[in-house]
Amino acid sequence: MLPRVPQARIVPDMGEISDGASEDVETYMQTLQLLERLHRRLLDLIKDEFERLGRQELTPVQALILYNLGEDEVSAGELRSRGMYQGSNVSYNLKKLVTMGYIHHERCDLDRRSVRVRLTDEGLRIRRIMRELFIRHAEGLLCSGILNEPPLAKVNQQMRGIESYWVERIRYIY
């Protein structure tokens, strides 16, 4: 049997890369797919929880907006940068949430173009539902041992590193 000769792999838009690096590139591509899939699954979990509670008036993205808003009063731009609202129009969702009574909004005194938003009591109730859901999931994951190896703190550190790298690339564009 002949020894395996390392071959360069072709990755779209990246040209040739060495065989050693190609494994890392493939792993990174899998990570990207997994991140997207995890986000969709998170939205599915939220949707199921609100259907179970008979609260179908909220979309999963709207529930995430309420959760991420927290007890702070922030601008719409700040809220947008906090969250993960894949493929959604945050301004549209904020307007809907105001109409449904989950968010209170008011124009900033100094800059009338800027709007500050905060949760109403009903919005805070939804946020508590979301927090309880996430706590149940964390407890279940802890009991199952899924979060042990590698430790979730290490995974989060790596994800923050990827985020920082992406932010640098975005700033480079402009």
From TrEMBL:
<dbReference type="InterPro" id="IPR039422">
    <property type="entry name" value="MarR/SlyA-like"/>
</dbReference>
<dbReference type="InterPro" id="IPR036390">
    <property type="entry name" value="WH_DNA-bd_sf"/>
</dbReference>
<dbReference type="InterPro" id="IPR000835">
    <property type="entry name" value="HTH_MarR-typ"/>
</dbReference>
<dbReference type="GO" id="GO:0003677">
    <property type="term" value="F:DNA binding"/>
</dbReference>
<keyword id="KW-0238">DNA-binding</keyword>
<dbReference type="InterPro" id="IPR023187">
    <property type="entry name" value="Tscrpt_reg_MarR-type_CS"/>
</dbReference>
<keyword id="KW-0805">Transcription regulation</keyword>
<protein>
    <submittedName>
        <fullName>MarR family transcriptional regulator</fullName>
    </submittedName>
</protein>
<dbReference type="InterPro" id="IPR036388">
    <property type="entry name" value="WH-like_DNA-bd_sf"/>
</dbReference>
<keyword id="KW-0804">Transcription</keyword>
<dbReference type="GO" id="GO:0006950">
    <property type="term" value="P:response to stress"/>
</dbReference>
<dbReference type="Pfam" id="PF13463">
    <property type="entry name" value="HTH_27"/>
</dbReference>
<dbReference type="GO" id="GO:0003700">
    <property type="term" value="F:DNA-binding transcription factor activity"/>
</dbReference>
<feature type="domain" description="HTH marR-type">
    <location>
        <begin position="28"/>
        <end position="164"/>
    </location>
</feature>
